[in-house]
Specification:
This protein has about 625 residues and is mostly helical. Helices cover about 75% and strands about 0% of the residues. It is built from 32 helices and no strands. Helix 7 packs antiparallel against helix 11 and helix 14 packs antiparallel against helix 15.
Amino acid sequence: MKKEIWFGLSIMAMVVLAAFVLLPPVSEMANGHLGLLMLALVVVAIMLGFPTAFTLMGMGMIFAWLAYKSQNPELAVTQTLDLMVQRTYSVMSNDVLISIPLFVFMGYLIERANLIEKLFKSMHLAAARVPGSLAVATIVTCAIFATATGIVGAVVTLMGLLALPAMLRAGYSVQLSAGAITAGGCLGILIPPSVMLIVYGATAGVSVVKLYAGAFFPGIMLATLYVAYVIIIAKLKPHLAPPMSAEDRYVPLPPLAHEVSNTISDKVLPGLIGAIKGKRNAAVPMNELLKQLGIALLPAISAVLIMGAIFMSVTSPAPVEDVQGVVAMGGGFEDAAPEAEAGGIAEPDDLQAPPGTDAPAAKVAVEAAPAAEAAPSEPAAAQERVDAPASFWIGLVSVAVALAIFYAYFSFVRLEIFKMLLGSFFPLAMMILAVLGTIVFGLATPTEAAAMGSMGGLLLAAAYRRLNMTVMRESVYLTAKTSAMVCWLFVGSSIFSAAFALLGGQELINSWVLGMDLTPVQFMILAQVVIFLLGWPLEWTEIIVIFMPIFIPLLPHFNIDPLFFGLLVALNLQTAFLSPPVAMAAFYLKGVSPPHVTLNQIFAGMLPFMGIQVFAIFLLYTFPAIGMWLPQTLYK
């Protein structure tokens, strides 16, 4: 029997043994103890391979019947069936869940648009001079593609077919190659738009919009740490990640670029401008020269448009409300104040005298009138633009310097790589940013943004001529299958949580944890350690739907923000795909890897990246602003 199976069986035996050792004898068991026994049995049943959703429903129904039977045996069956119907209806009426099938559909369409091969090729050429360039390009490609699809299995499988053979041919270590593919492919469950964050938000009652905003920078931080680790390893141990050979870095030039590069200049701007203005462009069509020049100037045009939009934003005048009447009334009170101060507490004679007979009141009215007449001119003056802050001009100079350096080294070879990126990276990145931007900046709900993402997936598939009835049929079928799995999980989790609460299991755990007199830091460490250990035998879906309802009620006692807790959990749950024995990413990669790549080598390659995940959790806890700054800034 394999070591992995023995490890899994030993974990199951430990869970069952702990349940029977810690629980009192059967004759002394209360309902709360039955709840803990149900929790242990569910974990064991899932590890034995029973379907998670139906295990949760079955255990929930049985133990809910036991809870009702202890109170009123005659109505136990009726109450149990009523509970099942009510919990199912409450889950299915949750509007947040509508976005799940839309995001999944978007992912399956993009997966079948054949973008990943072009994306990987362009990324590894763009990073050719970076140490460990193939592994760096693999992580970046996985992060981008996993973000767009959110389907870990598909990304790891496709990258295993594309990147693993290329890295092995280049002499890369099997462990480093496997770790880069599996760790990068799992980033899609953290970086928005992530289905995991939707599931957590629906379970914990946290805004999905704030979760998306909060998870953006931690996801980028984790991907950056992966890349930094690969670069450091490649510098310290070059034999594990040899640099790319000149043959692998070779980019063939089209006839136009070859002609201009040989006759005028190998730099793009001097070569194209020189070819346009002189007689030397006789061998190259003018329209082709202008087309290539337009592509080459796209970075500069984009920079001008972005900086122009920033300038218009930072210099826009503050909105002025129409307060004409308020100004007139304020003028009268300001005039009356000095007289009141001079005479101390004065009798308001103007209120007692007939209208029009009191001179001070008439004076107030006369002085208020010019103020009212002058009021309309004040908004016009206020509409003048304000001066741009110094930080804008510093940023503008920095962008100009960066563009100058960029074009100084912008050769025709780099132009070809840039065109590859235009055809693979930028369409995908623009679609992701559009979906995220509309969610984070409040322009659309997650469901509406998911609908736009699905339309973007259709357009991308059509643009790459991959949209046909076969692709649509497969995408719709897989979307329905995945969505049904998630919805059944929610139904099972809801019934299980209700039964657990009926038995008093939640109260028992609350009393036990609160009785330990933990500080917030100790509780946070305990919770994250438990979730980390649960990632070994269970997947992230099971951890969220089973154990998050147990942790969430304890957060108010320790003054912990559920949003911040969710970000830590999202980082922590990356381990669920990388930790044996139920490391699904390892099994996905093993299924497409060459025969000489063993499962133990894949596990060994994933361990350093698991350590990076733990370090990322420590960074996020030490510096909460990494995750909390963006939601706090946008949603004050």
